[in-house]
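Appendix B, Record 12. Input sequence as logged:
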Amino acid sequence: MIRLVLVRHAKSDWGDPGLDDHDRPLNDRGMRDAPRMAARLAASGFRPDIILSSTALRARTTAEAFAAELDVAVSLDRELYGAPASSILAAAAATHAPAVMVVAHDPGMSALAARLSGEGIDHMPTCAVATFTWMQDDWDVATAVDPDSWTFDAPR
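Logged structural output:
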């Protein structure tokens, strides 16, 4: 079985207009939502083998909240910053791990969630968690077919 969990980074802070986009931190809501959503995912019994994260501060901070709750290391991937759906899926598949979490950005996250859910998920709000499961053991096979099931959870 292959499981892919997509997590859009938690709500970021736009308070400093001079700050580079890559360096924007989470705002207060984001700091509350990330650990809360991580605990909800942990309560479902899911534990990834690896967490891939964009190098952007808001994504890294979100990934670290999930990593702390799930006791899994975070692997940073600069290519996930602003990545399209195809690159996000390719990064997950390249791990060859049976359970992968990716923390990244829109519009790529929403596009991938929509594609994998057959348009059942039309948008990934901040800190949303979408889980996709294939009854396959090979990422090449899994990524060529629709998932067998999916779930969606959001903080609001």
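The radius of gyration is 14 Å.
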